[in-house]
Amino acid sequence: MKEIILTQEQLQERLEYWQDKLRLKDWRISVTKVRAYVMKGDYEGKVSALHCNKQAAISILHEDDFNSEDGLCVMDMEATLIHELLHIHTRLINKPNDEGEDEYCMFEEQAIESITSALIALERN
């Protein structure tokens, strides 16, 4: 896989493109590159969304802080952006109960990763 590092301007362009594709045009969404010490945690991206106002803020890990210790992962800011946009759709899906919440999150992450990979493959081929 090829590393995809985007400028802030390119991130904004890709946000607008993917908002349209993912039917999130009626949302006000911002995207910003963020340093790891601000993001606090082992994340490549995070989303904070207010569904009642259709507003969201996406943070993408700054390229200077990306670290793949095993060398198997490559930074792909566009894939991270898509992943976080998909969370906007899935965040309000009801969980059956509080038991198994970690399991639900794992399944949600697996589904989002699969969909993200499929979208990227379709877009880049």
Structural features:
125 residues, alpha+beta, Zincin-like, 3-stranded mixed beta sheet, 3 strands
Question: Can you describe what's shown?
Answer:
It is a single chain. This protein has 125 residues and is α+β, with helices and mostly antiparallel strands. It has one domain (8-124): Zincin-like. Helix content is 45%, strand content 16%. The chain is built from four helices and three strands, in the order H-E-H-E-E-H-H. It has helices at residues 8-21, 36-39, 77-90, 101-124; strands spanning 28-34, 45-50, 55-61. The chain has a three-stranded mixed beta sheet. A hairpin with a 4-residue loop joins strand 2 (45-50) and strand 3 (55-61). Helix 1 packs across helix 3 (77-90). The longest helix is centred in the last third of the chain and has 24 residues, at 101-124. The model has no long low-confidence stretch (mean pLDDT 89).
Summarize this, please?
The chain has four helices and three strands. It is α+β, with helices and mostly antiparallel strands.
Lay out the secondary structure:
Blueprint: H1 8-21, E1 28-34, H2 36-39, E2 45-50, E3 55-61, H3 77-90, H4 101-124
Q: State the helix count.
A: 4
Query: How would the global form be characterised?
Result: globular
Question: How many independent structural domains?
Answer: 1
Please write the string of helix (H) and strand (E) elements.
HEHEEHH
Cα Rg? 15 Å
Structural class: alpha+beta
Uncertain segments are none
> Looking at CATH, which topology would you report?
Zincin-like
The count of β-strands is: 3
Global mean pLDDT: 89
Largest sheet entry? 3 strands, mixed
Which oligomerization state do the chains in this entry correspond to? single chain
Helical percent range? 40-55%
Cα end-to-end separation: 13 Å
- Looking at the overall shape, the CATH architecture is 2-Layer Sandwich
Q: Please state roughly what percent of the residues sit in beta strands, choosing from under 5%, 5-15%, 15-25%, 25-35%, 35-45% or over 45%.
A: 15-25%
**What is the CATH class?**
Alpha Beta
